[in-house]
Amino acid sequence: MKDVYITRIATFLPNKPIDNDQMEEKLGIINGKNSKARRIVLRNNQIKTRYYAIDDDGNITHNNAQLTKEAIERLCDESFTTKDIAILSCGTSSPDQILPSHAAMVHGFLKNGNLEINSPSGACCSGMNALKYGYMAIKAGEAPNAVCTGSERTSTWMKSEIFENEVEHLKELEDNPILAFNKEFLRWMLSDGAAAVLLESEPKGAALKIEWMEGYSYAYEMETCMYAGGDKLENGHLKPWSEYPAEEWGKRSLFAMKQDVKLLGENILVKGVDSLKLAMKKHKITTEDFDYYLPHISSYYFKEQLYGELKKQGVEIPWEKWFMNLSKVGNVGAASIFIMLEELVASGKLQTGDKILLHVPESARFSYAYAYLTVC
């Protein structure tokens, strides 16, 4: 089995950063009233700026596949071009369409010749699953390199017009036309962007060796928490959009991203630390065995709580090992972990031999992904 190294990382964040006061201007006001939930969510998540693929005139500047293509091109130069890519593995929570696959659409924009593609579906873990596919392919000697990506373009999923039909329907029913907090919660959390990493079997200059990767799912015991393209019923089951008549799609905002906030708060950290302990036990490491801990969290609201849960379950990680950049770039879902890692590498803090632990949760139905890296 071959060793696998991250030899390059690149990111692409579209347009200029958007501060908290500009968000509703970009995404639109629902029912003619400023959101009350916005202030609550922003106070808790402590995100200061994020990025949208929307220009100053409200025009869409990039779709998801185009964001990903931009990140990949920034990964390349004269010594490694897009034509040298052997495997293209692209993860996202927000593909531009149901079919063709996300990686196929990215490949279409690259126009770089024949190669193998892979499109893991899911939410935040899809970026890590894209990475694991490339990791396993190179480790098995099946390919000389792989470009693995995580990306999101969720801003258009959160624009006010997505919810207008539902609000109008509520007015007709003479109900209070205010969106449920579960639907509005994610509106003020998510950001657009993409990141790409190059995997190779030999380090070329500074590199990060992937020692191992692990993934865990709790879907066998947990109901759906975050979803899009369906509606959650009172019994906890998810009814897909394809089982609703077309006229109901807008009335129920079926294609908006939604979060069961209560289920999230009760379980995301408990299961996250449980799965972390499983990974650490399997690979016989302790919190003493890594120098940097990169947890992807959706909100700084969870930072202190995560620390508390780690301590409660006996795997306390000192604050000096934590590294995050959520407040500057927002929650970019599948891309967040790579954007964090790129900033850490660029910071100049890393020294040869340092160990890095990546920790990515996915609240969709509670999945978790891990990677353990060594600085070369």
Task: Write a compact overview of the structure shown.
The protein is of the alpha+beta class. It has twelve helices and 15 strands. It is 32% helix and 21% strand.
The CATH homologous superfamily of the largest domain is called Thiolase/Chalcone synthase
Strand content: 15-25%
Architecture (CATH level 2) name of the largest domain:
3-Layer(aba) Sandwich
SSE arrangement, N to C: EEHHEHEHEHEHHEEEEEHEHEHHHEE
Proportion of residues in helical segments: 25-40%
Number of strands: 15
Please state how the strands of the largest beta sheet are arranged side by side. Answer: 5-4-6-7-1-8-15-14-13
The CATH first-level class of the largest domain comes to Alpha Beta
Give me the CATH fold name of the largest domain: Peroxisomal Thiolase, Chain A, domain 1
Low-confidence stretches: none
Largest sheet: 9 strands, mixed
How far apart, in Å, are the first and last alpha carbons?
19 Å
Domain Beta-ketoacyl synthase-like N-terminal: 120-202
Pfam families: ACP_syn_III_C (PF08541), ketoacyl-synt (PF00109)
Protein name: Beta-ketoacyl-ACP synthase III
Domain Beta-ketoacyl-[acyl-carrier-protein] synthase III C-terminal: 281-358
